[in-house]
Design brief:
Mean pLDDT: 94
Number of strands: 21
Low-confidence stretches: none
Largest sheet: 8 strands, parallel, barrel
Radius of gyration: 24 Å
Strand order of the largest sheet: 1-2-3-12-13-14-15-16
Length: 474
Amino acid sequence: MKADRRARILATLGPASSTLEQIRALAQAGANVFRLNFSHGTHEDHAERHRVIRQVERELGRPIGILMDLQGPKLRVGRIAGGKTVLAAGQAFRLDLDPAEGDAARANLPHPEIFAALEDGTDLLLDDGKLRLRVDRHGPDFAETTVLVGGPLSDRKGVNVPGVILPISPLTPKDRADLEFGLSLGVDWVALSFVQRPEDIIEARGLIGNRAWIMAKLEKPAAIEHLDAIVAQADGIMVARGDLGVELPPQRVPVLQQRIVRRARAAGKPVVVATQMLESMISAPVPTRAEASDVATAVYSGADAVMLSAESASGQYPVEAVTIMEHIIREVEADPSWRANLEATHSPAEANIPDAICCALRRVAGLLEPAATVAYTASGFSALRASRERPATPILALTSQPETARRLALAWGVRPVHFPEQLHESTEMIDRATAAARQAGLAEPGDMLIVIAGLPFGRSGSTNLLHIAQVPEK
């Protein structure tokens, strides 16, 4: 990992990036965390990718995070006679629970929970928003609608209900089986789809416990209404712009992206900007200028990570996509206005001891320009609170827990290092910190370091010490 890049890269694995050579190349190009998309592939596919990632991790000698992305509920219409029909604007169209094949007048919608949540005047979106229906009348097993935007409708196309909280768990039976399998492998993050309320995170937490950190994917407008509560419950946030853009006008998505990033940053929760970042690189060796600007905008806003989906999973240029994303991040972070923007969008610290320490860290880093900050952390709490401050120094997170090191691979500016040593005295702490900073290539003899930790050692969330140290000559 190169020390001077703060924003992280999350790369999705798939058919174009599953071999040892491909995954190694992606990691060497700059990927910090790999995404296993459980909407596709078998358990055997994901188990093999997990094994290869861990092999690459050992080869490169640095923690690599693994995020499993659960599919979540998929709401779809039923079968259409002949496989396709065409709906015309202004016509009547009925949706119901009748499993018979549909036609130009009606279609099966095998989701009674949708009918239960509808109100007259509600809009329904079909096929990723290409078709729009308005509900005129409904009951527990049907909805009579008027077609507002028509077009072809094929078998099994998706259904979205914007602005309505559906009484559906984000965890389907498939998700629960996938989740247990992924946790048995040892994934570090679980991305939870179809989050609508904070209770969805609580439900998942009951199954996951402390075996992984939970990332809430914000892809439903209903989730925005509960944004603060969802951020409080989750360990991380993903701005899932593709699905969010289906249910919202496109002009609202950039505004919500900035709002979500600010809220997550204020809470000190890692936030990922995802979907279509370098979409053209699925089939082209270079991105469009607009796509480069899109990635840059996320980096300027202080997002912890930017994500590649099909670009690295099934595209023709997966390594090139990671490489150009890495170059964009470096270019932005070399711009003096990047640091000025981070300062301008910084949120005040909370009135507690850990935040007071990390707030002081930010001020000291700005005044003394030390080579690095060394954060001792067991649970990852100290490193995340330090990262929340977006200090001018890189953050070297030393932890005795390998799973903590891997989870922190997604956090802004954090360079996690797993070390198995047990520390008992503050002098050992300082000696180990200066040695680790030198070994990581972050500091040279004579450089200053900021060291933060919690005393007594090993107690989670007890950050209460800030020490300024100088790297010795020997």
